[in-house]
Amino acid sequence: MLRYLTAGESHGQGLIGILDGFPAGVKILVEYINKNLVRRQVGYGRGSRMLIENDKAEILSGVRWGRSLGSPICLLIKNRDWHNWEKGLSALPEHEGSISSVTRPRPGHADLAGLIKYGHNDIRNILERASARETAIRVGIGAVCKLLLKEFNIEIISHVIEIGGVGINRMRLKLDEIHTKAEASVLRCVDKSIEKKMIKRIDSAKREGDSLGGVFEIIVTNPPIGLGSHTQWDRKINARLSNAIMSIQAIKGVEIGVGFEAARRFGSDVHDEIFYDKRDKRFYRKTNNSGGFEGGMTNGEDIIIRAAMKPIPTLMKPLNSVDAFTKKPFKASVERSDVCAVPAAGVVGEAVVAFEIANAMIEKFGGDSLSEMKRNYNGYMKYVRGI
Fold this sequence. Notes:
The protein has 387 residues and is an alpha+beta fold. The protein has a single domain, classed as Chorismate synthase, AroC fold, CATH 3.60.150. 32% of the residues lie in helices and 20% in strands. It is built from 10 helices and 17 strands. The protein has helices at residues 30-41, 49-52, 111-118, 124-130, 135-150, 175-183, 192-207, 237-246, 342-365, 370-385; strands at 3-7, 14-20, 57-61, 63-64, 67-68, 73-78, 155-163, 166-167, 214-221, 251-256, 274-277, 282-285, 293-294, 297-298, 303-309, 320-322, 329-331. The chain has a 5-stranded antiparallel beta sheet with strand order 8-7-9-15-10. It has a 4-stranded antiparallel beta sheet with strand order 1-2-6-3, covered by helices on one side. A two-stranded antiparallel ribbon has the order 4-5. α1 (30-41) packs across α5 (135-150), α5 (135-150) packs across α9 and α8 (237-246) packs antiparallel against α9 (342-365). It is globular.
C-alpha cells in the first residue's frame, strides 16, 4: 500500500516528503518533478514569496541511476528564505525570543484553533506548518506518482473554471486542447476572453487589499475499470479522492461529475446510459455525468473532479480580530501572501489525485516492481476485453 508523510515549516530549512510502498523499476526524472514545482509557483495573483523561492527537489533516497528501488523515496525542497529565519525558527533553545511572538490570529486561518489545541503562546508555531507552502512537497510526491501512472497511459490535467465569480462556459474541447490551453495561460484558464475578465477581477481585489478564491477542475484520463470498491466505505475511490482534495489548504468543497447539479435534475437526465462497442469489445457511455465513478469504483470513463477554493485568509486590509492573550481587539496580523492562488491549487490537486490513483493501481494490480504490476495489469485488461 502506498503512503506518504511530509515535514517542514514555511520558513524553516526546507520541506521533506517520504513516499513509501512505491514499486521498483519506475523511471524517475528529477527534471519532471521540478517542472511540476515550477507550475505550482506561477500564476497571476501570486505573492512575493514566489519571487524568493525557486523550488527544486533533491532525491535523497529510493532512486538509483534514474530508477526507483522499491525502498522509501525521500524528497527535499530547500527554502531559500531560511537564512532570514535561522534564529527565529531555530531548534536550539538559546535562540528563544529572538523574534517577537505572533498573538493576533487571522480570521479564516488555523491560527487561533491551533494555538488553543496545542497550548502554544506564539501563533507562529501554528502558521508555519499550516501554510500552503507545505503543498510544494506534495506536488513533488505527486509528480513521482504521475511517473508511475504514465507507465499505464494515465494522465492527469487541471484547469481553472472560475475565479471570484467570473467563470467559463463549458467548452467542448478535447483533452489535449484543455492541457495545451491551460499550460499557456497565466491563470490556467482555457478561455482567453474570460481570462482577461479574471485578471481584472484579481487586480481589483489587489487594489482593495482583498483576496479571491475560485474553482478548478481535474481530469484523469484512461483509468481502468474497477479501481476502488463498493464493499466498504473506506475503499470507495471517489470518497478517497474527495478526502485528498479537501486536505489541500483553503479547499471548501468538492464535486464529482455534474456534482450538485445532479440534485436538481430528473434521474433520466443524470444517469449515464451504457453501450457496447463490438469492434473494440468494450462497454462505454456517451455521457459522463457520474464523473467516472459508479458504486465507489471507476467505470472506465475519465475522472472529473472540481474543487472550490476559498479566498486566501491573509488580507492586506486585515479583518477584525482579538489578541489571543490580552483579549483586546486588533486588526489581524499580516503575513506575506497571495491575492489569488487558484491556478496553483489546481496543480496541487493534480498531485494529491495522482497519489490516490497510484495507490489504487498498486492495490488493484499489486507487485513490488513495475514489471510485475504491468503483467497483472495486462492480464486484467485482457480479461476486461474478453467479457
